[in-house]
Amino acid sequence: MRRLTLALSLGLSMAGGAPAFAETTAPMAVETPIVIGQSYALPSAVMNQTREINVWLPPGYAQSSQTYPVLYVLDGGQDQDFHHISGIAQLGTIVGTTRDVIVVGIASMDRRNELALPTDNPELIARYPTQGQSDRFRRFVGEEVMPFIEVRYRTSGETALMGESLAGLFVVETFLKEPQMFDAYVAVSPSLWWDGGKLARQSGAHLRDHSNDPRTLILTLGDEGEMMQAPMDVLIANLRDHALPGVKWDFTTRPTESHATIYHGAALDAFRRLYAVPAS
């Protein structure tokens, strides 16, 4: 009976009487947003639609008057690779291992439309009916995105283009067809398999038309099978056969990485090479 009376007493107390336990008040926390960059909705006449452009600035940008190199990142949407690559830039700034650089993310909407070359392959056309508008997307980058950035930010004129997978294919195509667009090109696991490796096979013809202007091409590939490796081997052979003294290029194999894991380490290595801090 005493146990029943105690239980009823506790129940009444918790239901409508005085609190059974003392209430504690958590300290008030001031909430502020974390802002890592600026996102623009850029109207594009070339693409006939509004496109997402994201910009990360080095921490000291607002307090300085210096100019900065610009890295343009394909698949650079906020839900794509923008945060990943701008984080590498931020780390290099904080620890002093790389120069300050502006990171511009160019978001993708239809990757095979924007990043892949046109194909006559009926199977690819059936699977990807919107494919093959990489030339148009390159015009968008060169005629609209780059001028937009150059007008609004203090840029040094030093530029680079980075992309992985289909975006890596676009990087290689741009290097071969419009080498003057950027000073440096970083292609991570480029999808050179597209259209049966046609771009790699045509690379020698494109390289014969290249000038000896200084530029850099960084290529890397993981353990990704013959379909990825074979066209890369063709591209490398053509780069060796058409060597130009002003063009620095190299190919790094990453046998411990897959297509899904290769990007972070490859991008970090590219940063350390392209934006190395000058020896004092």
From TrEMBL:
SUPFAM superfamilies: alpha/beta-Hydrolases
MF terms (GO), sorted A to Z: hydrolase activity
The protein's name: Alpha/beta superfamily hydrolase
Membership in a protein family: Belongs to the esterase D family.
Domain of life (superkingdom): Bacteria
Keyword terms, alphabetized: Hydrolase, Signal
The organism of origin for this protein: Brevundimonas faecalis
Signal peptide feature range: 1-22
